[in-house]
Amino acid sequence: MAESLEMITRQQYEQLVQLGSMVQQFGSIIIALDQRIATLEKALAQKTTLTHDQVKMLNAQIGARAQEQCTKYGLDYKKAGSRIRSAIRKETLRQCGVKDLHDVKSSYYDTASGYIRSWASYKVIMSIRSNEE
Length: 133
Hints:
- Helix content is 82%, strand content 0%.
- By secondary structure, the protein is mainly α.
- It folds into two domains: 1-47; 52-132, no CATH class.
- α2 runs parallel beside α4 and α3 runs antiparallel to α5.
- It starts with a helix and ends with a helix.
């Protein structure tokens, strides 16, 4: 009887060793899969373009920034707003390397938004101001 208990214990020990080995193998497989998924998510984010709502939000930010610039430099928004919005949009598109806001990669949304918030061109403002006079 004692021998059979000892055999069961040895068998259980061998099974536990095998189980431990399997767990290690599964762990390395899971880590590899996690890395591949992260790589695919990054690649997908670089290929995905902005949604319609994101483009609308960028356009609203462009309008708000144009309004700020008109207020700052004492320009009439009705007269100068469209030219300032156009300049902001053109420069943002140039910075993102695209021809339309819909073509901006979703991973560049924060970059485009930050650029719009910080846009300032004294040259453009002075050109608009001289045309108004």
